[in-house]
Design goal:
alpha+beta, Beta-galactosidase, Chain A, domain 5, 2 domains, five-stranded mixed beta sheet, 13 helices, 20% strand, elongated
Length: 526
């Protein structure tokens, strides 16, 4: 079949198949986000007590089984309270739970949403290299100077743990945007590991990155994905250490003094990041939604925790453009519509060139068929005569598909932006679309998208010489409709509007080409 296809058809087919394979992989094959309960056995596992215990052993110390993962209310020694979030701090000097209070983050029952799993490492947990000291640190509780603190940027929460031969103090100041500063002091030097916690599970999604990441002083981003991290790995000289999921993150950062870190792996190949320290340590932190405006208000460099995959360099400015439009019109749905129109206008020269070329190739289809029949036993002569025919009529088989190929990175960048943007959470559009981050529960947008794709396909010039090729393309709208049933409404809206604009452009080009052809015939007969 392939030998009967033109170069253009081969490239189009390869492009379409690649897109389908990517979508198929992410929906059916990609590793699913880790269920927190899977790590319970690891969290409470026994450590072999040795003086040279590995980091992997240090994250599951023998005394940790005594630190109940689901602590009773009596174990909470302090609480951070604001209008947008609450943080419970337990006797182990860690964030036991973070609650998101805004309406768009509430759970299905309308209750405040929990950000952390009860069965994994929590932010500010410490592991000591010395097994005896480590055991002692998990047996003796912290005390707090106050029971409740407001995130006003000045009130100081002091957590103190007095062990046999060392005193650990954590001084915390919280801000209204979810950021905080940590000054950790010890009465003597002792090597330890402190973690921002296991990746949040509230926004776990198989389509997005979930795990740990580090940003080095050189600006290199290292990702460690859940279910795929096979062994411990160090990340020296890092400015950012974070645990992230699709929408949320717990971050440690220090842009003045870089830190060394290690990312450990558990039996399920899930990563947990730890900063390696000895004695006193100053850090800044943030825990909450990966809202770009919030991260930028804390420090513009923190936007690195918003992960768009391999097209991040392209996706980030596209998001900024989309956000600018939303701030202008005041609605994310209409912002997506306007954004799609602007992208189509920007790409119009490429699109127009491709459409014109496809129309020319359609006109040459009968002559190409004659050449294939005439030189079917001599491929070399066939190629020579085909090139002559293309040159004579100003057609180029590559010019029809090259514009489409150049647009693929842009599409995948937009795909990542609309898939990962927490800004779309709770953002409505019109009628039944109340949350652009969720799938259309009535499937109206996916069906409209499929119908528009079918219409676009019908008016686009085709040059099929094989019935199997024609059938493959014929059923593509059905295949894509199926894929988009589970996609966020914001992403489906973009694709639907993009199809509508493609239909308008293709219809216009078809009319222009028909008029040009008529004028040429009139000129010949005159």
């Amino acid at each position: 079949m392939l030998e009967k296809m033109t170069y253009q058809q081969r490239l189009i087919l390869a492009t379409v198949i690649s897109a389908i394979l990517v979508l198929f992989y992410e929906i059916f094959v990609a590793p699913k986000p880790t269920v927190a309960e899977k790590n319970n056995s690891t969290t409470i596992a026994k450590q072999q007590t040795t003086n040279s215990a590995s980091v992997s052993n240090l994250i599951t110390p023998s005394t940790y089984s005594k630190a109940e993962t689901v602590l009773p209310s009596a174990e909470i020694i302090a609480r951070v309270k604001s209008e947008k979030f609450e943080i419970d701090i337990d006797k182990y000097g860690r964030f036991s739970q973070v609650y998101l209070l805004e309406d768009k983050f509430k759970d299905a029952n309308g209750q405040k949403q929990k950000l952390l799993s009860d069965l994994n490492a929590k932010p500010l947990e410490i592991r000591f290299s010395d097994p005896a000291l480590n055991d002692s640190s998990h047996a003796i509780a912290y005390t707090a100077n106050i029971n409740e603190v407001a995130p006003d940027g000045k009130s100081e929460l002091i957590l103190t743990q007095t062990l046999k031969d060392i005193i650990i103090t954590k001084k915390l100041v919280f801000n209204a945007n979810g950021s905080y500063s940590l000054k950790l002091t010890m009465s003597r030097d002792a090597q330890y590991f402190i973690t921002p916690g296991f990746s949040p599970t509230l926004g776990a999604d198989k389509f997005a990155f979930n795990g740990s990441l580090a940003v080095t002083t050189e600006g290199k981003i290292k990702n460690f994905e859940n279910t795929s991290h096979k062994s411990d790995e160090t990340t020296p000289k890092s400015n950012i250490i974070a645990s992230v999921d699709k929408y949320y993150s717990s971050v440690f950062y220090n842009f003045e003094i870089p830190v060394d870190a290690v990312v450990t792996s558990d039996k399920d190949k899930n990563p947990t990041a730890f900063i390696i320290a000895n004695g006193n340590l100053n850090l800044n932190g943030y825990i909450g939604p990966k809202t770009v405006d919030t991260l930028k208000s804390i420090d513009p460099r923190l936007v690195e925790v918003v992960e768009y995959g391999m097209f991040t360099f392209m996706a980030r400015p596209l998001f900024w453009a989309l956000e600018f439009i939303e701030k202008t019109v005041g609605n994310w749905g209409w912002a997506i519509v306007i954004f799609t129109i602007l992208v189509r206008l920007l790409l119009f020269p490429l699109t127009y060139k491709g459409m014109v070329s496809m129309n020319k190739l359609k006109e040459l289809a009968p002559k190409l068929t004659e050449l294939k029949e005439k030189y079917k036993g001599d491929p070399q002569k066939l190629n020579i005569h085909m090139m002559d025919l293309y040159r004579k009529h100003g057609a180029n088989p590559m010019s029809g598909c090259l514009p489409m190929i150049l647009q693929i990175p842009i599409f995948f960048a937009i795909y990542r932006v609309l898939l990962n943007a927490i800004e779309l959470k709770g953002a409505g559009w019109i009628l039944w679309i109340h949350d652009l981050s969720l799938m259309d529960k009535y499937y109206v947008l996916p069906i409209l998208m499929g119908a528009s794709m079918f219409i676009q396909q019908r008016i686009t010039p085709q040059n099929f010489t094989d019935p199997i090729q024609e059938k493959i393309f014929k059923y593509l709208p059905v295949v894509f409709t199926f894929f988009f049933l589970a996609f966020p409404a914001g992403l489906t809206l973009y694709w639907f509007v993009n199809n509508l604009l493609s239909i308008i452009q293709q219809y216009t080009v078809n009319k222009l080409m028909a008029r040009t052809k008529r004028n040429a015939k009139v000129a010949e007969s005159a």
